[in-house]
Amino acid sequence: MAASADNSFSFAVGGGHRGLSLTNRTAQGPPFALSAHLGPQGAFGEYNSNANNHGALDFRGDVTFLIVSGNTALICGVVRHAAIPEEEDTGFAVAVVDNGPPGSVAPDLISLTNVLIPVPQSQTDCEANSFLLLPFLLLPVVDGNITVDDAAS
Predict the structure, then answer these.
(1) What is the pLDDT of residue 1?
(2) Could you give the CA distance from residue 124 to residue 139 in angstroms, rounded to a whole number?
(3) Which end of the chain has the least Cβ crowding within 10 Å, N or C?
(4) What is the pLDDT of residues 106-140, one digit of tens each?
(5) Partners of 5 in the β-ladder
(6) Coil/strand/helix, residue 31
(7) Helix, strand or coil for residue 146?
(8) Measuring CA to CA, which residue among 25, 29, 66, 17 is closest to residue 44?
(9) C-alpha span between 150 and 98 (Å, rounded)
(10) Do 78 and 20 form a contact (C-beta atoms < 8 A)?
(11) pLDDT tens-digit profile of 87-110?
(12) Strand partners, 48
């Protein structure tokens, strides 16, 4: 008997620059890179936020939870390296929306990043950050692309 052909798992990957701010959405803001995957042992990957001001959004984190629903993903994890030493070993959460390939009418979106939070210990802890998907907290991805694949759909 053949093994199952469905070895697919959900993921969210991409990079670029987030819009500068909620009031200046289309100017190029800090760069980010995302590689979040679900596998047989759960979520893994990395999220990098590279603000050039050496502030709270200048960090690299390990992905520990990934919640994918359609074209949206909520990514949670723990900060491993940060410009602010006190930020290391704290939690982070960020949400993304895949609105199609680059050049689509609606750009891909990335949320503000929730940082300096308790490290999420469960899927429920991560889901508590789902407010990041509220439209007024989402910024366009400038000069980049996000791909979200919901293996369940």
Answers:
(1) 35
(2) 25
(3) N
(4) 999 999 999 999 999 999 999 999 999 999 999 99
(5) none
(6) strand
(7) strand
(8) 66
(9) 11
(10) no
(11) 999 999 999 999 998 887 899 999
(12) 33, 60
